[in-house]
Design a protein that fits this description.
The chain is mainly beta. The protein contains 6 helices and 12 strands. The relative contact order is 0.17. The N terminus is likely disordered.
């Protein structure tokens, strides 16, 4: 939710009127629960009429606010919308590959910043039952898509898939363990979280780099309660850690790392996310996004 796919930034899809956003709101409400949004019986079924407002902070300082809404599209609707947009050929290829590997449902988000800037992001419902963002990593090599489509789960889409083990047990899985030789341009795409760092900016586009990428996704049975717009939300925990070891010709080798702790409810999506960035094991940035209000038309 906090990062953008640079390829998508140039593709603004006119989805309204093409069937998107027709789903009913996934309130997940259960009259037998003390929560307005329990995890049990919850399901992600977004409507464009529901707006989620988030506030952001960086290193403890207020950074801004964002209004987020989702539209749901099947694969045919997604491809039909993309085919009308110039410059979207690479995205169409990615979507087709995902469909060939079993993906049927896609989501398109509108993200309106408090300064008026509008961003959009493409997601898909993975075969693992989680929401996944289509990122620049999908451009590296189409042969990596089967691995990538199981990496970086943003949140679980159905309450039945949310882990229920003891809160003290860390149910972790290594979703990525990859070694690649990449050009400087591809390394910059992979390290977009660190695009302002001097080392990344100084990396020649034509450089040859050996990259090792490891990702660990952890879940527990712990729960947390949030109160938003006078409604109580039961949230589950998911953590993602990424480490990138990069060795490029004529440059010092570097280690970059990101971690994201997420609290989510399948009916709404992310409730809170804390992202940390580290370079050479030294933290350089902490960004927190927290839902503040839920608006329903």
């Amino acid at each position: 939710m906090l990062k953008k796919m640079t390829l998508i930034a140039a593709v603004t899809i006119a989805l309204y009127g093409c069937g998107g956003g027709s789903s009913s709101s996934g309130s997940g409400k259960d009259t037998g629960s003390t929560f307005n949004y329990p995890i049990q019986n919850s399901e992600f079924a977004p409507s464009s009429a529901t707006k989620l407002n988030y506030t952001f902070s960086i290193d403890g300082q207020h950074e801004g606010e964002m209004k987020l809404s989702f539209q749901s599209l099947d694969s045919e609707q997604m491809l039909a919308a993309l085919e009308q947009e110039p410059g979207s050929e690479d995205v169409i290829n990615i979507v087709n590959d995902l469909v060939n590997y079993g993906v049927q449902q896609f989501y398109y988000s509108d993200e309106v910043q408090d300064d008026g800037e509008v961003d959009n992001t493409l997601y898909f419902a993975g075969t693992d039952g989680a929401l996944h963002e289509i990122t620049d990593a999908y451009l590296l090599d189409s042969r990596l898509i089967p691995m990538l489509m199981h990496s970086s789960p943003v949140f679980r889409l159905n309450g039945a898939d949310v882990k229920e083990n003891s809160p003290n047990i860390d149910i972790s899985e290594n979703t990525v363990s990859l070694k690649l030789t990449l050009a400087g341009t591809s390394v910059k795409s992979m390290l977009e979280d660190f695009e302002e760092h001097d080392w990344v900016q100084g990396l020649p586009d034509t450089a040859s780099c050996n990259v090792a990428w490891q990702q660990l996704v952890g879940e527990t049975g712990v729960r947390k309660t949030f109160t938003v717009s006078n409604e109580t939300i039961e949230a589950a925990y998911l953590k993602e850690d990424n480490i990138y070891y990069v060795n490029c010709e004529d440059m010092d080798s570097m280690e970059f790392a990101t971690s994201a702790e997420r609290w989510f409810n399948p009916s709404l999506g992310l409730i809170e996310q804390i992202e940390l960035q580290k370079i050479e094991q030294i933290q350089i940035n902490e960004e927190i996004a927290t839902i503040t209000t839920i608006e329903k038309e």
